[in-house]
Each structure stands twice: as C-alpha cells, then as structure tokens.
Design goal:
Elements lengths: L2 E4 L6 E4 L37 E3 L13 E5 L14 E3 L2 E3 L5 E6 L13 H18 L7 E8 L11 E7 L4 H17 L3 H12 L3 E5 L2 E4 L10 E5 L11 H22 L4 E6 L14 E6 L6 H6 L2 E3 L3 H10 L3
Helix pairs in contact: 1-4, 4-6
C-alpha cells in the first residue's frame, strides 16, 4: 500500500508509491560516458579558461600552465559577479539588490575520462579540501552569507561540459532550501534539546535498513522520506555544523565514503547522471548545536511533473529500504 512519509527536518511530506515500485534496472537512464576530449578543461588548454584562483600543482610548474592536478577558476559565464556593491532597494512590496556573488569552477582532475568514482582517495580528498579552503576564503568577504557547493554530473543533470568538475556559488542571501533545514532543525532543538540530524543517525544505526555504508567517521543512508529514487545523504557521525571546520583526516574519510558510494551507485544504476549539493551552516552562524552539515546525492532517475510542482508532494516509486538493500548488494 502507498505511504505518506514526513521528513523529520523540514516537515515535508512525500508519497512512497509502492503501487509503482521499481527495481534499479527499471529506471530508463542513459549512462554517463565521456565522449572524448580534449576540452577547455583539459591540460594544455589552460589559456582557454579564466586565470586560476588556486591550483594543486608542484612548485616547479607555472601558474595557468600544465602540471596541475586540480584547478579553481572563475566561471566564464557566472550566475553572479564578484564586482560591485549590493545596493538593496525596494519597489513597493518588491525587494531587489545587485547580482553580486562569486561563481567558481573546481576542475577536479586533468584526466578527461576520470570521475570521483575512479579517482584515488588522495585526489578526491584534494577536491573536498579545496571546497573547504574556498569557503574559508570567501567567508572573508562581508557581502556573502552563504557558499553552496554543487556538482552536475552528466547532461541530464545540467552539466554543460563532461570533464570532471564541480562548482560553488557565494551569495549575499541564504538559499531557501538551507533556510528550511535551519528552521526545522532549530525547532526540533527547541523541543528536544538535541540535534535532529544526530537523532536520525542514531536511529538509522540501530535500525540499519536504510544504511548503505559506514566508515571513516561517515555514514551513508537513504533518508526515511526521500523526494527522489535513491536520494542519498552522507553525514559525519560526529556532530559538526560547518563543513569548513573539518580537518584533513575528516575530509579524507569523506573522500573515501563518496568514492565508495558512487561506485555502488554506478554498479546498481548503470552510471546515472546525478547532482550533489553540500549543505552547511551559513557563513555568519558559527558553530550551531542544532544543524549538521551533510552531502545530498540525487541520481536523475525520474522527472518532476505537474503534481509535484503544483502540490509540493514528491512521488517516489523506490522505497528507501529497497534502495539501500540494492546498494548494499552491489558491494564487492
């Protein structure tokens, strides 16, 4: 029988449509396979991107030249621009401000054919360390309130270039999705004086049905009320609200778990396109007791249609317990 399930953080209800239940091989997705390089992100084409902000490279190599293992460059077509003042203003009941922000691209590897699932733990750790360092640097700009790190993998997930890369956008406002999580987490804290995310981790570790993997201080789980099939959360087991406060060894543990999960996902679902989003505390919040940073990974397996847009109810044909079981079964 179908179920209505309520997310314990934001209070959003979803429909788990057991009548439409689908196995992993029932999803008709085109696997993501690089079609070939070189491209503007490949080594040797450094002059085709804006000048690098930072890079991981040996000291005997030249800035904006070959020899790097990771580069960060401004987005050539930014959603927001770094220059200027906010200059907020009103027009009757409407508010506006200048489109000031930062939009950067993290080119994760010089290898056009690699991915986070195939790269070494050290290389993936460099990606997450770079996220941390860029957040810390952008935090110095008083105009910015939030930095969202995200990845679009595959054309169906919104990637315009297939070379492995991720992005971050710093904004003068906190995104609504994060605001909802903060508000829900704070309300839970006020009622119970506990972090809702820590309570989720404790319950899932006891239950185990929705846990995919756990290692190196991180847990991978299918949330109780997922919006999408095989929606996955990766959380640090130890409470931490701000991602940028993570240490080197912690982020190496995250790199290990992200690589493990992506390989399980690829085996189970046939290398689908996916998005990931890093939700962390706002830049000006500091350490908060009620919020817990986490990585959300969403394979692109279904489409959002009229009912979802009109109602806010998401219909998910893959119960999270079944998704977790299928992912666990893909372990070598």
């Amino acid at each position: 029988m179908p179920e209505l399930r309520k997310d314990p953080v934001v209070g959003r209800w979803v429909i788990i449509s057991t009548e439409r239940a689908r196995r992993p091989n029932d999803f008709n997705t085109e696997p993501v396979r690089p079609r070939g390089g070189p491209c503007v992100f490949c080594t040797g084409n450094e002059d085709k991107t804006p000048p690098e902000i930072v890079a991981v490279r040996p000291p005997d190599t030249t800035r904006d030249g070959p020899g790097w293992s990771l580069r960060v460059v401004p987005n050539k077509f930014p959603a927001l621009r770094i220059e200027g003042d906010l200059e907020p203003s009103g027009e009757g009941l409407y508010d506006r401000m200048n489109g000031v922000g930062a939009h950067e691209v993290v080119i994760e590897t010089p290898d056009h054919y690699a991915s986070l699932a195939t790269m070494s733990i050290d290389a993936v750790a460099d990606v997450f360390l770079t996220f941390r360092d860029r957040i810390l640097d952008l935090k110095k700009d008083p105009r910015f309130e939030y930095v969202l790190v995200f990845k679009n993998h595959g054309e169906a997930a919104g990637a315009s270039l297939e070379h492995p890369h991720s992005q971050l956008i710093a904004t003068p406002i906190i995104p609504i999705m994060v605001t909802e999580e903060l508000a829900g987490s704070q309300q839970y804290w006020q009622r119970k004086e506990r972090c809702v995310w820590c309570d989720v981790i404790r319950q899932e570790r006891r239950d185990r049905r929705r846990v995919v993997a756990e290692s190196a201080g991180f847990i991978v789980l299918e949330p109780f009320a997922p919006r999408f099939p095989f929606e996955t959360w990766i959380l640090p087991v130890r409470h931490r609200s701000a991602f940028e406060e993570s240490g080197v060894e912690e982020l190496r543990g995250l790199a290990e778990m992200v690589g493990t999960f992506l390989r399980l996902m690829n085996r189970t679902l046939g290398s689908p396109p996916f998005n990931f989003m890093l939700h962390t505390a706002p830049l000006r919040e500091g350490a908060v007791e009620y919020f817990h940073w986490h990585l959300e990974i969403i394979p692109k397996l279904t489409r959002v249609a009229g009912y979802e847009w009109g109602s806010g109810f998401f219909i998910n044909p893959a119960p999270p317990e079944d998704a977790a079981e299928a992912l666990r079964a893909a372990a070598p």
